[in-house]
Amino acid sequence: MLALAAPPALAQSSAVDELPLEDIQTFAEVFERIKRAYVDEVDDSTLLRNAMRGMLSELDPHSAYLDRREFQSLRESTEGEFGGIGIEVGLEEGRLTVITPIDDTPASRAGLQARDVILEIDGNPTERLSLQESVTLMRGEPGSQIRLSILRSGQEEALDVTLTREIIRTESVRSEMLEPGYGYLRVSQFQSRSGEQVNNAIRRMERDGPLQGLVLDLRNNPGGVLQAAVAVADAFLQSGLVVYTEGRLPDTQMRFSASRETAAPDVPLVVLINGGSASAAEIVAGALQDQRRGVIMGTESFGKGSVQQVMPLGNGEGLKLTTALYYTPNGRSIQAMGIEPDVRVVRGRLEVTESSRQLREADLEGHLRSRSEPRAMTQEMTERLREDYQLGEALNLLKALNVLERR
Question: Are 153 and 70 a contacting pair, CB within 8 Å?
Answer without folding.
Answer: no
